Amino acid sequence: MYRTLFITAAMLLMTACSTGDRKTTGPADRSATPETVNMLAGLKQAAGEGIMFGHQDDLSYGLGWVYPGGESDVKRVTGDYPAVYGMDMGDIEHRSPVNLDSVPFEDMKVFVRQIWARGGVITLSWHVDNLLTGGTAWDVTSDKAVASLLPGGEKHEEFKTWLDNVAEFLASLKDDKGVAIPVIFRPWHEHTGSWFWWGQDLCTTDEFIALWRFTFNYLCGEKNLHNLLFAYSSGGDIGSTEQYLERYPGDEYVDLMGFDYYQMSDAGNSSFRENVSRVLGIVTEAAVAHGKLAALTEAGYEGIPDSSWWTTVLWPAIENHRISYALVWRNAHNKPGHFYAPYPGQASEQDFITFYNIEETLFQSEVTALSIYKQE
Ligand code: BMA
After folding, report:
1. Which of 65, 87, 157, 240 is most buried, by CB atoms within 10 Å?
2. Domain count for the chain
3. Which tens digit of pLDDT belongs to each residue from 251-280?
4. Which CATH number fits the domain that encloses residue 198?
5. Is 298 a catalytic residue?
6. Catalytic residue from among 49, 93, 190, 207
7. Measuring CA to CA, which residue among 280, 288, 343 is closest to residue 314?
8. pLDDT digit string (tens) for 11-59?
9. Among 100, 105, 108, which is best to mutate for testing ligand 1, by the most ligand atoms less than 8 A from CB?
10. pTM of the full predicted structure?
């Protein structure tokens, strides 16, 4: 009942909302398409209604299956898809036909069109290889990798060809009418840690900010892409607002602020809950101050051995924060135990259904009803 009421209220509110209102606090890309402007406005409104649930690679594979079409472990358990769908572009820089987790990019394009058609939200990360060393995203053997990509750097020209490949993929995300489908692009994530080559100890603040701004300007300027919202997403070990914002590239380059954080053991229940809630306090306060969306951009407990994790750990950690979404990581089909959402028969299945039924958790059907992309 309450859910029906708030959806109705949200729809009325959106109907009443003028085009002018939507434009005043628009995307960082000042030339964003109308659909992207609407998406941002819709996400801001939806954040007042509840927290969207997201899952990485939800449609690509799950426990015991690989893309038969229309499948989803979240749907197998709840009957509904998640509201937010994460995907990763790692290896697109090499024009590989599949990403670093073997998901075909052609399949991703199909998923993006399906998600757009039902009013879901797409977020793309990029575990990009290390151009300087030839290693992976996790190759932290050189602290010159970021500098080498910047204008004047030895790998700059080649880096632009990598961004060209990213741009080609992003530009191909169109519906059957040729409308560019808006997506949340989340590059250079977890930069406050030092496990990726763009991390804290691997580059200076100025280099990181220059990398971010170059990426933004190249994609939105040079490549003329205007279907992107940009997510700035730190690691979870954040002690203060100053630390969180130390490498913030600026309001003109960011639409959403978030962070990634994982629970490592059952003994970590209370510290996970407390840390997520504490850092969300920092992030949501910064997001309000800067007029941005906020989200828990990655989270989870690998293998979910705690059968009540959703309602006793994750939900209490996020429920009092005004965030757009909380996304859990992927359900690998070929890496035993590496899953973050339940599947039929998994220990936390019943608890996840209880979590699904909480009025303020939003899954696909509720977000479809909110019509977050639709102009009045
Ligand atoms: C990590 C793991 C890896 C995966 C990577 C990118 O956290 O899930 O297996 O390759 O994310 O998706």
Report:
1. 87
2. 1
3. 999 999 999 999 999 888 999 999 999 999
4. 3.20.20.80
5. yes
6. 190
7. 280
8. 444 443 333 333 347 999 999 999 999 999 999 988 989 999 999 999 9
9. 100
10. 0.93
